[in-house]
Amino acid sequence: MLNSNIMDVIRQRRDNRNNLIRTRKNEVFSRIPRIAEIENRLTATGMVLLSRVADNEMSAEEFVAKIMAENRELNEEKARLLTDNGYSVDYFDPPFVCSLCSDTGYNSENKLCTCLKTELTKRALREANLTDHMAGHTFETFDLSYYSAEFNPTYGTSERENILSILNLAKEFVTSFDTYPKNLLFYGSSGLGKTFLSSAIANELIKKGVDVLYISSNNLFSILEDIHFGRGDEKSHYISEKVLNAELLILDDLGAEFITQFTTSELFRIVNHRLLTGKKMIFSTNLTLSHLTKTYSERIVSRIIGEFDTCMFFGEDIRKKKAFN
């Protein structure tokens, strides 16, 4: 997938630049036919002189000197004609998208260029279904100051200590993604950072080349219903496949969907398939663990409780706090 995306980006850059060169040459040739003649002459000069070397009419040294002299004269004339008609000397040589790699995608050390890494990350974010806003969520921008440091006797800890332990677990999940033994379940009231941390994890793993899909529970089951009833389009089938096979599935707002026998059955199918194939999951929900048990079947909840590290979020709605700041 990564190699395919790399080649797509490189090919698109080359095609765009070649098309621009072609357009510019057609424009100039129609206005200044002499430049078209010069371009043809430059192309033909080498072949003519090379044939004379092959026929022993001149030495290789004479060939090099002759072709350099003729090309220099032709290029000087072409440059004069271009500038005299308002064009830059390098009009047929537009700049590359990236000057560091000349749009090859690789730097002088034959390593992936930073420009291509950035482009691939953007593509991966789009394929992961992350919004532009969520793409800015990182561990570094997760603000602990919105969580109270006051001890809460109900939970036996403070909001800040609790969220800090969850943040550290999220970082560990990213660092040891391939070997981390479980999945993650974020649960608690809305506005406490579950979505932020989920998307921060997604962003960190995408930078590492991990195939991620982020989708809300409501959207997912709507898509699966469309496919079930023959209404699914190409994008629906793509998401359906990725739900099962992406290296990480982040299912947001579990329980917000309209609960039916179909959605419950599909959730079990997804969870069971991903557990059997060793694909990681992060689920977030506003439901408590007891509400999860009442909402879904025992066979689903038992798998979630047994195969997920559960992280409880508590405190005041961060969005309301921000609104009053």
Structure write-up:
- The chain is an alpha/beta fold and 325 residues long.
- It has a domain at 129-323: P-loop containing nucleotide triphosphate hydrolases (Rossmann fold), CATH 3.40.50.
- Helix content is 58%, strand content 10%.
- The protein contains twelve helices and seven strands.
- The protein has helices at 2-31, 33-54, 60-84, 114-128, 159-175, 194-207, 217-228, 234-245, 261-277, 289-295, 298-307, 318-323, and strands at residues 151-152, 157-158, 183-188, 212-216, 248-254, 280-285, 308-313.
- The strands form two sheets. The protein has a five-stranded parallel β-sheet, with helices on both faces. The chain has a two-stranded antiparallel sheet with strand order 1-2.
- Strand 1 (151-152) and strand 2 form a beta hairpin.
- Helix 1 (2-31) crosses helix 2, helix 2 runs antiparallel to helix 3 (60-84) and helix 5 (159-175) packs parallel to helix 6 (194-207).
- The radius of gyration is 30 Å and the shape is elongated.
- The chain starts with a helix and ends with a helix.
- The relative contact order is 0.09.
- The mean pLDDT is 86.
Strand order of the largest sheet: 4-5-6-3-7
Q: Which H/E pattern describes the elements?
A: HHHHEEHEHEHHEHEHHEH
Q: Identify low-pLDDT runs.
A: none
Q: What is the straight-line distance between the termini? A: 44 Å
Task: Based on the coordinates given, report the CATH architecture of one domain.
Answer: 3-Layer(aba) Sandwich
Largest sheet: 5 strands, parallel
Strand content is 5-15%
CATH class of one domain: Alpha Beta
Number of strands: 7
The overall pLDDT, averaged over residues, is 86
Percentage of helical residues?
55-70%
Shape: elongated
Annotated CATH homologous superfamily of one domain: P-loop containing nucleotide triphosphate hydrolases
Structural class: alpha/beta
What is the name of the CATH topology of one domain?
Rossmann fold
- Helical stretch tally: 12
Structural Rg:
30 Å
